[in-house]
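Query form — protein Pyruvate, phosphate dikinase

QUESTION: What is the three-dimensional structure of this chain?
INPUT:
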Amino acid sequence: MATYVYDFSEGNKDLKDLLGGKGANLAEMTRLGLPVPPGFTITTEACRAYRSTGHLPPELRVEVTMAVRRLEDELGRGLGDFHDPLLVSVRSGAKFSMPGMMDTVLNIGLNDASVQGLAKFSDDERFAWDSYRRLIQMFGKTVLGVDADLFSHALDAMKADRGVVADTDLTASDLHELVEQFKTLVREESGRDFPQHPREQLDLAITAVFDSWDTDRARLYRRRERIPHDLGTAVNVVSMVFGNLGADSGTGVCFTRDPSTGRSGDYGDYLPNAQGEDVVAGIRNTLTLADLERLDPTSYTELRQAMRRLETHYRDLCDIEFTIERGKLWMLQTRVGKRTAAAAFRIATQLVDEHLITLDEALERVTGAQLGKLMFPQFDARSDGRTLLTTGMAASPGAAVGQLVLDSVTAQDRAAEGADVILVRRETNPDDLGGMIAAVGVLTSRGGKTSHAAVVARGMGTTCVVGAEAVEVDLAARQVRVGERVIDEGETIAIDGSTGEVFLGAVPVVPSPVVRYLEEGLEAALAELSAEDEETAELVTAVDRILTHADTVRRLRVHANADTAPDARRARTWGAQGIGLCRTEHMFLGERRVLIEHLILARTDEERQHALDALLPLQRADFVDLLREMDGLPTTIRLIDPPLHEFLPDLTALSVTVALATERGEEGPDLERDRALLAAVERMHEANPMLGLRGVRLGLVVPGLFALQIRAVAEATAQRLHEGGRPHAEIMVPLAASVMELHLVRDEAEQILAEVAEAEGLQLHVPIGAMIELPRAALTADRMAGAAAFFSFGTNDLTQTTWGFSRDDVEGAFFAEYTERGVLSVSPFETIDQRGVGRLVRIAVEEGRAARPDLVLGVCGEHGGDPESVHFFHEVGLDYVSCSPFRVPVARLEAGRAAV
Ligand code: PEP
Ligand code: MG
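ANSWER: The structure tokens for Pyruvate, phosphate dikinase are given below.
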């Protein structure tokens, strides 16, 4: 028989899966000998059984009976007794804390008879009737679904009738009358009487707590916090203690350190003569723990000892709920407390200094997401008067304030004049890059987290919100509409890339001292802080200590995805140990696009050669700059990848131009050229360009294109060698599916490298490798390894092609629905799908290495900077992850965490 019920004396803190966080910690405190009111926990397994069958398992009923009897024997009181009755609370408690999301019912066991017993025992008739009305109120709302306002209205009406303001001014007989009114309310609203039998109350309350796992708000919370929907909650049945039995009673919450700054000390609130829900409801101003010390020094001292005991035991910040019943302290809950990102770093190093944890443990106590939060400038949360326009998807964190601009050229012009601008587009495309670089923030009304805008902005560390569907961009009118509101180009808006919020007007921003540290080093960052700013100094020092430790323990190297020399420099300052992906197509935008267009459309060898001759010196200079910046470090240059159409004029626009010109009779060489161009664009038009002529296919089909790039790499390497540098260029072939594609490119590359080496009188060592971004490439890794010195997993395309999800479209389209319905728990474009895409990675790692033991393995898809994915890549044995420069510190930290 499954054991569905654990006494507090039977569990411990490591049983969170089964007992939930609250239950496991109540058991742990019981084990430690702290004063915990006796009780028991019904396991999450019981909840899962209930959820799958729709009724409480029969064994559970038996086990609950036995547990209640044990409790009654231990306390010498009975549930529902006429004399000195036992009352219990029924509290939810899942594995991960979901504050306020699920239900709790207090005072179970009170009925028309036992309320008399309670009055007698407590010697306080008013208290007894107040407890009973609270039970009916809470039970009515939570278990029987009666509208909570009806109870509050009845209570207010009673107070008005008696001419009093505070609940506490109602007398015992007032409350007795209120109980009768509440019972009538329950009967009328729920169609049943308030159950008098305590066991029925208990069973219904347990069921209600189980049900509260599935409320909309609980589901929403779990989605946001990425808590699986199938865990279920445990239920804690705890004997009641009362903080509302007079002036020598009360209830409170405390922390062993300040959860917002990390400072050590006792922090907390205390409310005399009150029950827990009064503190939460904020009906009276709370006192401090210092006040408690004055009011009840004995309980205070005992609480302080318990706090210290718990912090030493858990070796972490603890958050505690307690109640004092007539001068006796009871511990109602503890858990390792939530904290801000800054407090997490500070507390971790404080605990190291206090010899409570090791540096390895300190590393485990912080996360890359927290470090990421500390790196972004933030809106000053203290500022008021913000006007929220709408909320989109948070695509690239940060806080940006600037003039709204509607196109790339205006963005660049205004930025050149010194203005901060926010580029607002329906969606962005590669043509917008100039504007995106010039802008402090990017806002789009369409697209998801891996849309062009999102990926590029993240890469640049630019704040970005995408998919803000309420934003209607009207280019013709040069304005944006959000609902009724019209915002003209040039007006100021603010966007928060961590929350997706879009504000009208400026919101004050504060810069991050952690970024200064990453860019200028610890000493410089500390020197810039004022003497009073000890907290920030402690924070920056803590980040330095933990990150340095991560660097010493990690096995994964961290490279960056960077296409330009300035990006490369930034990546290097932030700790990148190489470039894992230089997307060369970004080098052919702007003025150079026409050169590629000429190359693609060339009809004669002469035209082609002409285009190539113009491109070669430009491309060589790009690589020289990059190799200079990355001197001594591997620099992986990917041959041109995107679909053809990105380099050609837009089909629709060109068709319109030609049609209009023809209609107007503008015959002449210009129109002739446009017609020829249109014919070529039509010829090359693809219904599904991401699966069309792109990557290695393009290189094999357009003569001279790859050769140009390979020659530029070879010549740039030679130039750097002549300059005395230590270039480590590598060439990477995109979107290969067959080893034959690799062989063809390799043959050509080796020939060019040999030619350049001979012409320059040098030895050129330029490894050639493959991106693994198609399932077939992964599944034939043994063969691919025969023609590749390294593999770099392009997990963006590998995810796209494994799931068959268009990376540019699906997130905004149906991922929300898919997450809601449990198909996805997180976007596979954000965090690697270990079962599917990850399996392909595993196969390719194992079979690739078996075929070529010295094969170097890395990843350069967006997942390379995603904390959870970094752990996966560590585990499968990659050599490095490559991510956008801004995420390099996050990846360093997570790679360290994965290794301890
Ligand atoms: C990838 O597909 O994962 C990749 C890095 O290439 P891109 O994002 O440029 O397609
Ligand atoms: Mg790709």
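ADDITIONAL NOTE: The radius of gyration is 33 Å.
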